[in-house]
Write a structure and sequence with these properties.
Layout: H1 4-7, H2 17-30, E1 37-41, E2 46-49, H3 51-54, H4 68-71, H5 85-89, E3 109-116, E4 122-129, E5 151-152, E6 155-156, H6 160-172, E7 179-182, H7 189-198, E8 207-211, H8 217-225, E9 226-227, E10 239-240, H9 242-245, E11 250-254, H10 261-273, E12 275-277, E13 284-286, E14 290-295, H11 299-304, H12 310-316, E15 319-322, H13 333-347, E16 354-355, H14 357-365, H15 371-385, E17 390-391, H16 393-397, H17 405-426, H18 434-438, H19 442-448
Parallel strand pairs: 7-14, 7-15, 8-11, 11-14, 16-17
Antiparallel strand pairs: 1-2, 1-4, 3-4, 5-6, 9-10, 12-13
């Protein structure tokens, strides 16, 4: 940070190297942002705050360290209950949010994330503050790929969990620090990595995807680092590795948890030294490729079980990013449905089809254990196997034996009962026989498109 009040906020000599690396990455990212960003330690001391965070009353902190509650909540004493303390008490908590500052003025915290040291302890937290009420000149490094608040590149979502993900991607995009993306299968980890690349200054350079789980150790090493002629049987010529092919761009290591300890050791050296050696060669080759890795497994548990190197974990997770499962962002499902249906219609050369409100309701209430990928494939199959200008409940659920089918059928029947009840209440003068109340007529079935006899 520029200014004397920011020079006081430095990391002491001998500090943890992982925390130092993360702090330096945060400084690079937050220095030019109009959004307020700060790093706070266990004692509520402000280790770092960008220009925007200090701008309200910078002169007060020109000659001494500030407490977060003094600088941002304008209090003389700590806030009554700060949610950020949960990050120290429960290491498994990945983020917390705050809407008020106890019984005093709110500090404006929007989200706080733990910054873990090389020993695995949460020593400091990264705090992102809510935007100020008055519009400010945008100086952040958000690139033209942002179409609206609900999209960033090909990522779609307006729910609170997805807004946090999009905000974090915008924050970390232009850094060269490693990013570890964690989330269940089908949550869009590769898409998030691609979005980080496309919104960064590296977007005109290669984006290389490597599925670490699909290659044996020796082949994976040869693919990533390359090999020299005669290094092994079949190596008839020298080959450049994918790290070299990604020069200036980004290399995405998917399913990083499935790699062997031997390969993890070699990858750690690459991250530490910034150079590779081809298989069978001794000449080091400098590389300039940002590393983004992803896994659907809990790496912290694998580290505890000695199945994944702890030092590599902290090298990969300088900037951690967690993608929420679809069940935690249900309000995004209508947006995703419209997007996937339109894309499928275009891909299969069909007129654009609409989705009925009842079908949207059914899709929103389904569990989707396969997350966004399952929803996308389900909708594509509906587009291909049905006709008509609109997808309705019957089209959505009567398509086969997917895991979601029974869930969708149950929800569809519930939605149908609600529609039938509403119609009965709206027509009190219509004579109804006991039989019609027990079993709806086929005419009603056709109107709702959701009844299965």
């Amino acid at each position: 940070m520029a200014g004397s009040h920011k020079q006081a906020n430095t990391v002491p000599s001998g500090a943890d190297p992982i925390l130092t690396a993360r702090l330096e990455a945060i400084k690079q990212l937050a220095g030019g942002l109009s959004e307020r960003v700060a790093v706070v330690d266990r004692g509520f001391n402000v280790i770092y705050a960008n220009e925007s965070a200090w701008s309200e009353d910078a002169s007060r902190w020109s000659d001494r360290q500030a407490k977060c509650y003094e600088a941002f909540a304008h209090r003389n004493d700590p806030c009554g209950t700060c949610p950020a303390t949960k990050l120290y008490e429960s290491p498994e908590v990945q983020s917390v949010a705050c809407s008020s500052g106890g019984d005093g003025t709110a500090c404006g915290m929007h989200q706080a994330f733990p910054l873990v040291s090389s020993s695995g302890e949460v020593e400091t937290v990264l705090v992102l503050f809510k935007a100020p009420p008055k519009p400010t000149k945008q100086t952040s490094r958000v690139h033209p790929g942002t179409k609206s608040e609900s999209t960033l590149g090909e990522l779609i979502g307006s729910s609170a969990p997805m807004r946090e993900v999009l905000d974090m991607i915008r924050l970390v995009a232009d850094s060269s620090a490693t990013v570890l993306i964690q989330g269940e299968s089908g949550t869009g980890k590769e898409l998030a990595a691609k979005t980080i690349h496309q919104t960064s200054y590296r977007r005109d350079k290669p984006f290389i995807v490597v599925d670490c789980g699909s290659l044996p150790e020796t082949l994976l090493e040869s693919e990533l680092f390359g090999h020299v002629k005669g290094a092994f049987t079949g190596a008839h010529a020298t080959k450049r590795g994918l790290f070299e092919e990604a020069d200036g761009g980004t290399i995405f290591l998917d399913e990083i948890a499935d790699t062997t300890p031997v390969f993890q050791s070699k990858l750690l050296r690459v991250l530490q030294e910034g150079e590779i050696k081809r298989v069978g060669g001794n000449q080091p080759i400098k590389i300039d490729a940002r590393v983004i890795s992803a896994t659907n497994k809990d790496l912290t548990e694998l580290v505890k079980g000695k199945a994944f190197r702890q030092d590599l974990y902290y090298r990969l997770a300088v900037l951690p990013l967690s993608l929420p499962p679809l069940r935690d962002r249900r309000e995004d499902i209508p947006l995703l449905v419209q997007h996937f249906v339109a894309a499928s219609c275009k891909r299969h050369r069909q007129p654009i089809r609409q989705v009925s409100p009842d079908a949207i309701q059914v899709l929103t209430q389904a569990s989707w254990p396969g997350n966004v990928r399952e929803l996308q494939h389900y909708l594509e199959r509906a587009v291909v196997t049905t006709t008509g200008p609109e997808l309705n409940c019957k089209d959505i659920v009567a398509m086969g034996s997917d895991p979601a089918e029974h869930d969708l059928r149950t929800i569809a029947r519930g939605a149908t009962r609600q529609v039938e009840r509403a119609r009965i209440l709206q027509a009190p003068n219509t004579p109804l026989s006991p039989t019609s109340l027990i079993r709806p007529s086929k005419k009603l079935d056709s109107a709702t498109h959701c009844v299965y006899m």
